Amino acid sequence: MDKKYEDWFDGFRTIVSEKLGTQIYDKVTDDCKRCKSVRNDGEMAACIKQLMENFDNVVEEKEKRGDVMETMGYYCFQNYFLKEVLTVKNQSKGIQESINNLNKVLGHEAFKLKENKIEAKFNECYCHTGVQVAEENLPRTYCHCSLGWLKDLFKVLLEKDVKIDMLQTILSGGNACEFIIHLD
């Protein structure tokens, strides 16, 4: 199994076990036959779809599922994007310049400052696990990973916690991934 898939499964197992218990993890993964030997992005997407459907059924509390997946996003951000954001932060004066520099790093205008909020829009899924090749929509629970990623990004950039609303995601059937970052 490719390292990016192994890392995702290891992270999911660790976070679910720590936050909800190993019995919950075992219930969620028990019948995920697709997840035993993932070899490519398509198989990973099918596996995660099944895994998230199980997760939604086993853990009824949306907040608990969201917390697990946001924590996954936190670790993803820390491992794959923290250095870039620290560079943006150190090279920027003020929030508008930070957003401009962040957009330059991303290569497109993903973030727009509008009064006391930032609108974020991504026209493609940037998840490194390969799920963007999914043939069917994934449960929205999975995209809480992106929510956690964004929360950590702006916590680092702004040095404060922010509230973020997830409006739509491509993986769950939306035309784009759209979020609102509240600055107050």
Task: Please describe what this structure looks like.
The chain has a single domain (3-182), classed as Muramoyl-pentapeptide Carboxypeptidase, domain 2 (2-Layer Sandwich). It has seven helices and four strands, in the order ααααααββαββ. It is of the alpha+beta class. The chain is globular and about 50 Å long. Helix 1 crosses helix 2 (22-29). Strands 1-2-4-3 form a four-stranded antiparallel β-sheet.
Quick one: CATH class?
Answer: Alpha Beta
Low-confidence stretches: none
Q: Total number of β-strand segments? A: 4
Number of alpha- plus pi-helical segments = 7
Task: Jot down its keywords.
184 residues, alpha+beta, Muramoyl-pentapeptide Carboxypeptidase, domain 2, 4-stranded antiparallel β-sheet, 7 helices
In short:
This protein has 7 helices and 4 strands; from the N terminus they run H-H-H-H-H-H-E-E-H-E-E.
Give the topology.
Elements: H1 3-20, H2 22-29, H3 41-58, H4 62-80, H5 82-91, H6 95-106, E1 111-114, E2 117-122, H7 144-158, E3 163-168, E4 177-182
Antiparallel strand pairs: 1-2, 2-4, 3-4
